[in-house]
Amino acid sequence: MSGAPAVVRAACPLDCPDACSLDVTVEAGRVTKIEGSRDRNELTAGFICSKVRTLPRHLRAPERLLHPLVRAGRKGEGAFERISWDDALDRIAARLIEIRDRFGGEAILPYAYGGSNGLLSDGTTDALLFRRLGASRLARTVCAAPTGRAATGLYGKMEGVALPDYVHAKLIVVWGCNPSATGIHLVPIVRAARDAGARLVVVDPRRIPLAAQADLHLAPRPGSDAPLALAAIRELYARGAADLDFLARHATGVEALRQRAEPWTLARAAAEADVPVADLERFVDLYAESSPAVIRCGWGVERNRNGGSAVAAILSLPAVAGKFGVRGGGYTMSNSGAWRFAAEPLWGPEPTTRTINMNRLGEALERAEPPVRALFVYNSNALATTPNQTSVRRGLEREDLFTVVFDQVATDTARYADVVLPATHFLEHRELSRGYGAFVLHVSEPAAAPPGEARPNYEVFAELAMRCGVARACEIPAEREAVARVLDATGRGEALRAELAERGYGLPAAGARPVQFVDVFPHTADRKIHLVPPELDREAPGGLHAYRADPATGRFPLALVSPATSRTVSSTFGHLRRGPVPLEMHPDDAAARGLADGERVRIWNELGEVICDLKLSSAMRPGVVELPKGLWSHNTVNGATANALAPDSLTDLGGGACFNDARVEVERAAALAPDAASLAHG
Prior knowledge:
Elements: E1 6-11, E2 21-27, E3 30-36, H1 50-53, H2 55-59, E4 69-71, E5 80-82, H3 85-103, E6 108-111, H4 125-133, E7 137-139, H5 145-155, E8 171-175, H6 186-195, E9 199-203, E10 216-218, H7 225-238, H8 244-250, E11 251-252, H9 254-261, H10 266-273, H11 277-289, E12 293-297, H12 307-321, E13 330-332, E14 355-357, H13 361-367, E15 374-378, H14 382-385, H15 389-396, E16 402-407, E17 419-422, E18 431-434, E19 441-444, H16 457-467, H17 479-488, H18 493-503, E20 529-530, H19 534-539, E21 558-561, E22 583-585, H20 587-592, E23 600-605, E24 608-616, E25 624-626, E26 663-668
Parallel strand pairs: 6-15, 7-14, 8-9, 8-12, 9-10, 11-20, 12-13, 15-16, 16-17, 21-25, 22-24
Antiparallel strand pairs: 1-2, 2-3, 4-5, 4-17, 18-19, 21-26, 22-25, 23-24, 23-26
Helix pairs in contact: 3-16, 4-16, 5-12, 7-10, 7-11, 7-12, 13-15, 17-18
């Protein structure tokens, strides 16, 4: 192989809205540099996030798995021996068949989420294997479940405002979203809009980087976004600023929403959210008087008991205020619905086996009936990402649980596996990906050879399906045919293939920059906005917009949040963050507890504890502390992360995770009783 460098086109399928197009420099078969492309996804604009820019470190990290492994010690010790692929696949197939035959297919649980958002690596041959085994179904609800339910119920997942069109807005509202950490390409667009005279409102409990540039920063108590949005709706009606004509023509549930907003005066909502009432009033002033006005609603809003109703209320604002119909006006949530993929294009309908919510993995492993006897973890670091971490760890420690981990690196979860399989990275296999912020679809060929014996998901699950006897080779399409079938499932396969061949990317039917209520309309059956959808009203406890109070108590008064950062959006790349990570706390909260910057502290509640150092930060609002998302055991003193303190309670819609409902206390670690360190490990 020639050592001369070559630049290969690729695309990023990771869990981020931007779906960047990449230029990958490869020398002697190794990736040496990754840059953003300028000639495909316009949103990429020639730059990429630091996480992907440093991918060469990940590809060659010492934690990279190179060979199949089998456990050689007790679970959790991380002792393994190398075996061949044939041996590994035969062991796995034999155990899965044995468990199915003895205990039924539902004793098998696949556990996967967004470690690869590629459309070839997830939901293809893996779905074939587990469906035909009759395995338990996994409700993939750790993220985007409440937002998805709300966006589907209200608008049928209508396409949102294209992010480049934010330059046309006169008001930009960034609500529960930190583009500086994830989806970074919105940041220069917001700056350009500001330079052109747009005003900026940020709604976030923390002073994120964009808040420093904002005309207004509302910092609500976590979980109180719904009252703010409902109070704004009530005030729009009270001022005569509601667009009654638009609502009459394009919406249902108008009066029901108005009635549910009525109790939320500005004063009551401001008190519940603990924000100045004058600031909330100013927000309504700015929103009522500005056009175009756009809301970027993020996923931080959903991570609490009221998450679905909060998103529904926020997405109702542009309808009530009549902000649609102009370029740069409306809202953006997820744009994944723009592709309108037909359900299950490759592997048929969902089976009727039991469903297990992934947020309650610990409960499932400890107490499910019938018991889970085989766990297959892929595209996920379950121990690092699932609520009630202590319970998950106890479940993984079961000697009678057969666990397979299929990953690129030796994760925290892999330490508890019986068999570990090495996976390829997205630059090392063929992949199909589409943006859920950017309106773009990519097909990428491998840019580099996999290290060691790493294999792609598509190949491994196909081989397991055949070894388990649930599929024949003739039933499994080659990768290129599978890509073609997924493209055809959009109903625009030929057009997409032509676009991909001509310019290297494809666009949805609505194009790259649709205008809401001009080019696109709700994908509901009647093409109207359903402001209080009956199905959501039945699902939410007490009905849609029924507010559940803050779970803080006198014993645990602090709200713990675990947001994404510029280094970890999920636990992906967490192995590269090698040093200790501190808890961030407002100086006033620290002073009230006699704590100083840099001290070792104990963060605890009835679920567990985390031992780490303390960092004082005026960017935090009083009453809120932060330990970032995506940490691994090596980032804290006792190996527990924020998820050891997160409850496995569920959101009002979609069965989502309530990470931001963690309520804790913080004290000096030196004050610990001798046996307290055992709390986090049960």
